[in-house]
Amino acid sequence: MKKLMKGNEAFAEAAMQAGCRCYFGYPITPQNEVPEYISWRMRDLGGVFKQAESEVASVNMVYGSAAAGVRSMTSSSGLGIALMQEGITNLCSTEIPCVFLNVSRGGPGLGTIQCSQADYNQMTRGGGNGDYYLPTYAPATMQEACDLIQKAFDTADKYRNPVGVMVDATIGNMMESVDIVENKAPDPSIPDKKEWCLQGGQRPDGSFARVKGLFNVPAESEEFVEYLGRKYDKIEKNEVMVDITDCDDADVVIVAYGTTARIAKQTIKFGKEAGIKIGMVRPQTVWPFPYAETKKACSHAKGVLCAEMAIGQLLQDVKIALEGTKPITQYHRLSGVMPSAKDMFKLCEKIAKEGK
User: Fold this and answer.
1) HSE of 165 in the Cβ direction (CA atoms, 13 Å)?
2) Are residues 267 and 162 part of one domain?
3) In this structure, are strands 3-6 and 175-178 parallel, antiparallel, or unpaired?
4) Distance separating alpha carbons of residues 9 and 115, to the nearest angstrom
5) Domain co-membership, 26 together with 150
6) Which residue among 58, 84, 234, 307 is least crowded, i.e. fewest CB within 10 A of its CB?
7) Dihedral through CA 78, CA 80, CA 82, CA 86, nearest 10?
8) Run of H or E residues at 24
9) At a CB cut-off of 8 Å and minimum separation 6, what does 282 contact?
10) Directed axis angle between helix 218-238 and helix 142-159, to 10°?
């Protein structure tokens, strides 16, 4: 049943309906409604809520509960996610599944509490040490965010890897009608019993479960990191998600995600009124990025407009995808200044004319 909810509260409810039973976090704008909502709602479900003393503490609490096999989650904004990076890389190295929700605000540093997409590199490239990746979903609507948060728990369990969900502050703080799947069953491909988890006692064969992330023998460490690389290859092959709109005969293709993609839909309407064919590629996973899909969708365009609320972070992936085959124009607004559909259209109009 559809219900009008605020974004952050809907995301919290979606997580709990997907089986999240441990949440640990620390307050930071613009995601404070997530822990606030969970703080009372989790009691009804028999789970655990804990406001930690810091983001560093919260990620390590997630580490503990997730290692015991409980679906666990934390949320923050970019500043808090930065403090969690050591925990994230350790979770990746020990293959502990959990979910991170990043409701992004502007930076660098303290920046602003307003909407931004400047955490793109943080989520897709990571700030922790070593070779690891964090699969990351980038929804554009509240409904999609709720669906992808629930999917994130399945993806985490499927690959035994932390998974990120990145929304900007606008989506986190707006209100929309959502239909949250209640008591969502895990993906049937995921084993009912987590044989790897730490629940005390011996296994039937006499062995003990353990997590290991330290290798003092170089050859053992190399073998393990190579194994992780093969896992990430599987994720790149199987988990790419992208929404492609009106690109078959487009004069110009916009590449955008999140709130910027919502605004770009109005730009596409302006194009139809003016007789300019504008399409859009909207990555729903920013890692793995839809490189092949983006290149194919842009193959007939005269040029590409990369639109984002950051200075050229998404742009780097668009460049990789297109491999120099198409001219790329960047359009960005920063630190809570919202992109303009009219400004985007003017650039699209220029690209279409120059391409003739």
Assistant:
1) 33
2) no
3) antiparallel
4) 17
5) yes
6) 234
7) -150
8) strand 22-25
9) 140, 242, 243, 244, 245, 255, 256, 257, 261
10) 140
130: tokens are 């070593």
Counting the structural domains of the chain, the total is 2
- Residue-wise pLDDT tens digits, 102-133: 999 999 999 999 999 999 999 999 889 999 99
- Domain end residue (candidates: 138, 156, 178): 178
342 C-beta neighbours (distance < 10 Å), count: 10
- In terms of phi and psi (left: phi > 0; alpha: psi -120 to 50; beta: otherwise), the region of 329 is beta
- Domain of residue 24 covers 3-178
pTM: 0.96
φ, ψ dihedrals at 301, nearest 5°: -80, 155
Query: Residue 345 has what DSSP assignment?
Result: H
CB-count exposure of residue 217 (10 Å: 0-12, 13-18, 19+): exposed
Query: What tokens were used for 40?
Result: 């009372």
Q: Are residues 248 and 329 part of one domain?
A: yes
Helix (H, G, I), strand (E, B) or coil at 317: helix
In a domain, 212, yes or no: no
d(CA 33, CA 95): 29
